[in-house]
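Job type: complex structure
Entries:
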Amino acid sequence: DIQMTQSPSSLSASVGDTITISCQASQDISTYVNWYQMKPGAAPKLLIYDASNLKIGVPSRFSGSGSGTDFTLTISSLQPEDFATYYCQQYENLLWGFTFGPGTKVDFK
Amino acid sequence: EVQLVESGGGLAQPGGSLRLSCAGSGFNFNNYAMSWLRLSPGKGLEWVSSVGGGGSGAYYADSVKGRFTIHRDNSKNTLFLQMDSLRGDDTAIYYCAKGLSYLDARHFEYWGQGSRVSVSS
C-alpha cells in the first residue's frame, strides 16, 4: 500500500497569509496527487488534480506542485472561506486502492 | 449544477446491514464513474469503492471487500452501496463522488454532503 503523510497536522493563520501544506508519499507516484478541501457539513471540494492543475472555478490563490514523493499545496492571500481541512490523495493504481493523507486543519490564529 | 444527495444512513447493529443511495443530477449520470468514500475520526478519509459508468469494473478497499457491494441504476441516476456484516469501524460519514469520465474514478470531482452511518449495539 502507498501511504501518504501530511505536515503540519494543523496550522493557525490570518487572513492575507500565505500558507503551505506538504504531502509525502511512501513511494514514487509521479504526479498522481489530488488535493481536497473539507468543511463540516459541506460537500468536500476538489481543488487541484494531477498535482498542479487547478480545477475550473477554484480561485487562483490555490496552487499545487511536486512530483515523485513530495507535493505541496499553497494558498496565497488566505481568505475567510479558506479555513478548512485539506487532504492530499494519491491515485497511482486503482488495484491497490486510493489513499488520503491524514489532513491538515487550517484555523484562525 | 452537479448535485449528489446521499440517503439511507443511520444506526445499525454489528453484523447488520444498511443500503446507502446517492441520487445524481445536473450531469449525464451514466457517463461517469462513481465512488463511495468515508470519513471517520479513527481512520480519517478513506476510499471505499468505485464503479465504472456502465456498472462494470467495481473496485473495493480491502477493508470492505466481501462485505460491501457497489452498484448503480443508470435509469434512475442512482448509485448504491450495500453494506453487510457491518462492524464498529465502519462507523463514518459516507460520501458519494463523481469521477472525471466513464472509467476515470481516480479524481473525485464532485461530492455529496454525506450520510452518517453508526454501527453499535
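Summary: The interface with chain B takes residues 32, 34, 36, 38, 41-46, 49, 55, 87, 89, 91, 94-95, 97-100, 102-103 of chain A (CB under 8 Å). DSSP finds no helices and eleven strands in chain A.
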